């Protein structure tokens, strides 16, 4: 990933991908282990789960009821990354209309 500068100012388009990917990875690091820790509790619990007014018992049927949640986790993280990344870039673009966002390169030798 690259962050581009144009005349010393950040290009907002080049910031979107690092922000969205960073958010998705960061939230995935938090929520996926939590989900994996809770999964055995759901699988091995002798509890009863209700669906559409009917009681469902057993680990297999309860796990089958939870399958949409398995599929939706990466989709939710990606969509939230897009929304939050877009909101941050919108805020930066509004801020950039009042004051410039400068990129100062230090310690880089120009060969």
How would you describe what is shown here?
This protein is mostly helical and 111 residues long. It has one domain. It is 66% helix and 11% strand. It is built from 2 helices and 4 strands, in the order E-E-H-E-E-H. The strands form 2 sheets. It has a two-stranded antiparallel ribbon. It has a two-stranded antiparallel sheet with strand order 3-4. Strand 1 and strand 2 form a beta hairpin. The protein is elongated, with a radius of gyration of 22 Å.
Describe the structure concisely for a colleague:
The chain contains 2 helices and 4 strands; from the N terminus they run ββαββα.
Topology (SSEs and partners):
Layout: E1 5-6, E2 9-10, H1 12-44, E3 48-51, E4 54-57, H2 59-98
Antiparallel strand pairs: 1-2, 3-4
List the defining traits of the structure above.
111 residues, mainly alpha, two-stranded antiparallel sheet, 2 helices
Low-confidence stretches: none
Shape: elongated
- Biggest beta sheet summary: 2 strands, antiparallel
As a percent range, the share of strand residues is: 5-15%
Rg value: 22 Å
Overall structural domain count: 1
Mean pLDDT: 74
Say how many strands there are.
4
> What is the H/E order?
EEHEEH
Intertermini distance? 22 Å
**Strand order across the biggest sheet?**
1-2
Helix proportion range = 55-70%
Question: What structural category characterises the helix and strand content?
Answer: mainly alpha
Number of helices: 2
């Amino acid at each position: 990933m690259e962050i581009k500068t144009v005349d010393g100012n950040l290009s907002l388009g080049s910031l979107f991908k690092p922000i969205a990917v960073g958010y998705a990875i960061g939230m995935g690091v938090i929520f996926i282990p939590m989900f994996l820790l809770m999964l055995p509790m759901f699988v091995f619990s002798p509890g009863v789960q209700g669906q559409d007014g009917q009681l469902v018992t057993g680990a297999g049927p309860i796990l089958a009821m939870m399958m949409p949640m398995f599929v939706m986790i990466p989709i939710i993280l990606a969509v939230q990354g897009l929304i939050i990344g877009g909101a941050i870039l919108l805020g930066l673009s509004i801020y950039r209309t009042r004051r410039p966002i400068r990129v100062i390169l230090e310690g880089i030798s120009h060969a």
